[in-house]
Amino acid sequence: MKKIYKSSVSKSTYLMFFLIVVVMILPLLLGEISVEDFRDSEILIYLGITALIIALFAWICFGTYYKIENGFLYHRSGPFFGKMKISSIRKIKYHSGWIVPVTYRPATDTKGIVITYNKFDEVYFSPKELETFINELKSINPEIEFVNFKKS
To answer: What are the tens digits of pLDDT across the range 15-27?
Structure first.
């Protein structure tokens, strides 16, 4: 069975995406680039790069998800992707805050989980359906240690 879990997206992520878009198209909004300028190849290159950067951030912001299938946990965040064996997961720690203590973060929220797998590998996820996600991982690998989870 395969289940796809979308990443939750924080308000700060939406705000950051909006600010990036505004800053990138600011010259158009301020009238510094006119219709006549579109004949200039430098302007077209700038607009093309701007469109690509905005598309990349949109892809990451709205295209981050996690999939559990055949004993593996797959993740995708825009063009970045990977997988891990669920049986190799040793620990899952709840984390909340801007500063995440891992280098790889295919997530779009400041609240999520740090998954420790293999010997020292760590990755940060932010599934929208956190409890269901955790329960499915737990049903596949009951040996997972859980840290900083509040009993509700």
So the answer is: 888 888 888 877 7
